[in-house]
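Deliverable D5.2: sample structural annotation.
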Amino acid sequence: MQRQRNSRWLIALVTLASISLCTNSFAASDEKLLNMCKACHGQTGHNPFPSIPNLAQQNSQYMVEQLTAFKNGQRQDKTMSKVAKLLTTEQMQQMAHYFFKGKD
């Protein structure tokens, strides 16, 4: 009985560790894309350039809609059209959430 509990506990720990590793590697791969956004829009979504929109606390749904429009060609911008094509819908949502929260 004790051996069974220990093996269940071990299986649970291994499962959690593998989930954690997958999550961390996924976040690391998206970090490069986020850094591209930060380069123009600023670390927290605030930037000093009048021609580049501030993204801080921008409505997440609106941001995803705009990124989608850049990706599918409904909206045109030399830089954003190229960047948006690199993003999946999930990544768009993550970026929008990041800038809405204003984290760095």
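Annotation notes: The helical segments are 2-41, 60-72, 78-85, 89-101. Confidence is low (pLDDT under 50) at residues 10-26.
The annotation will be released with the project's public dataset once the embargo ends.
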